[in-house]
Amino acid sequence: MIRTRFAPSPTGFLHIGGARTALFSWAYARRHGGSFILRIEDTDLARSTPEAVQAILDGMRWLGLDHDEGPFYQTQRLDRYRAVIEDMLVAGSAYHCYMTPDELDRLREEQRSAGGKPRYDGRWRPEAGKTLPTPPAGARPVVRFRNPTDGVVAWDDLVKGRIEIANSELDDLVIARPDGTPTYNFCVVVDDWEMGITHVIRGDDHVNNTPRQINILQAIGAPVPRYAHLSMILGDDGQKLSKRHGAVSVMQYDDEGYLPEAVLNYLGRLGWSHGDDEVFSLPQFCEWFDLDHITPSAAQFNTEKLNWLNAHYLKRAETPRLVALVQPRLEARGVTVTGEPSLATIIELHRERVGNLNELADVAEVFYIDLHPRADLLAKHLTPETLPMLSNFIERLPAIAWETTAIGALIKEIVARHGLKMPRLAMPLRVLLTGMEQTPSVDAVVAIFPRATVLKRLALAGRVTGTGSS
Ligand code: GLU
Fold first, then answer.
1. Alpha helices in 64-117 (DSSP H)
2. Would you say the CB of residue 206 lies under 6 angstroms from ligand 1?
3. 188 CB under 6 A from ligand 1?
4. Any bridge partners for residue 155, and if so which?
């Protein structure tokens, strides 16, 4: 039974690297019919915030990465950590150390000036036949893990291959502070054990913690999970992904008009591959996902590809869903979506042409507001040549059938009569009706408006130029 977990520290947003870790852990559990556990690592009280917890939960919900167990909060499990520490003290795999921070600093200073690596010297570590110093009166000790002194700690990383660290490289890690609170690595160990985690999939910024965690797991008699350390994500520019790159928080992608399935599809390919497949649904991803095809080298973010995927999914999304996603964006701009044309009609006409939900909102907005086309566009397209055609068009509108073909035929007839080309009439129509020079086919744009609105918007031609065409 496969059990994976996502264990974010709630110190900021759910960023894109965390989301990929979550996706891979989730998909691995789903692929194998296992369980996916959400654990909030909130023991760093100074840096953890309820807002960050909420941001993580929101991000996971937006992506649709549902958990089977949790969220577990480490701050609610402190008694468990303490109990395990007590057991370790009794078993001798942990011990009290009364060295003060000052003493530690002095020791490190001496080691450094002697050209060595600063490390704990084991002065409070119990050994057979060794007499320990007398604990200073009233001092509160830390608890240290009794790390093995010889041999190596090794694991076959499912991404990076075999990794071996000599135990002589590892200090006796502090697992509880003087006030009794457990430290980071220790909580992870107890949780991975008690939550029965079989596969730890996480960022490779944790590779250095792994040998320590394995040693503690072995000391408490816990099974050692398999580890898969994911390489980091670089920005478009090849630099480590950071806030400088803009949208690094998952919810910012929502703000910017991306669909979650596009982001998921994109993240799925970030460091993992299935042949040449670029486009896949989430169920498809779950079916294909494995740890064998994760690249150990860094993955580079490619915004263009993400945009391409987003446009792809926009074309395929169900219209009612897009309506539900675009309407709140319009309302947030103070635009009331009411009357004709319906938002669904507008979306269907434009979805092939836009890259994201905000662009869809941009084109939809012009249908619902009191439109004021830009003066320069009016001046450019309302000319002595085009105005008579517009007048003809307006005169004929009341009597024609209100559908795309008839409107298209009328436009063609008028330009032909004036011996001009299509765009000479299409452009002023576009600008007067939508304020934009680029729209879908002009006959279709005219046809989705109510006839009265078209007449009203085209009447501007007369007012702007004083030709009285209205
Ligand atoms: N809490 C850690 C982080 O947010 C992850 C710990 C782990 O996955 O073991 O980076």
1. 78-91, 101-113
2. yes
3. yes
4. 163
- Structural tokens at position 213: 């965690």
Q: Using a cut of 0.90, tell me whether the model's pTM lies above it.
A: yes
* Coil, strand or helix at 236: coil
With beta carbons less than 8 A apart as the criterion, state whether 28 and 265 touch.
no
Write the residue with the smallest CA distance to atom 6 of ligand 1: 7
375-465 — its CATH code? 1.10.10.350
Write down the pLDDT at residue 462.
83
Domain ranges of the chain: 318-365, 375-465
Of the candidates 390, 370, 389, 387, the one whose C-alpha atom is nearest the C-alpha of residue 379 is 387
Closest CA to 88 of 190, 188, 169: 190
- Binding site membership of 209 for ligand 1 (Cβ less than 6 Å): no
- Would you state the structure tokens that stand for residue 453, as one six-digit string? 């609105």
The one-character DSSP state at 76 is G
Report how far ligand 1's centroid is from the alpha carbon of 18 (Å): 9
Say which DSSP state 469 is in. -
Averaged over 244-265, what is the pLDDT?
90
Contact 26, 32 (CB under 8 A): no
CA triple 291-297-303, angle to 5 deg: 95
Give residues with Cβ within 8 angstroms of 13, minimum separation 6.
52, 55, 56, 59, 248, 249, 250, 251, 252
Given pLDDT bands bounded at 50, 70 and 90, which one contains residue 336? very high
> For residue 242, what pLDDT is reported?
75
412 is catalytic: no
- Report the Cα 154 to chain-centroid distance in Å: 32
Top-level class of domain 318-365: mainly alpha
Closest-lying ligand 1 atom to the alpha carbon of residue 209: 9
Q: How far apart are CA 256 and CA 167, in angstroms?
A: 48
- Catalytic member of 117, 130, 160, 243: 243
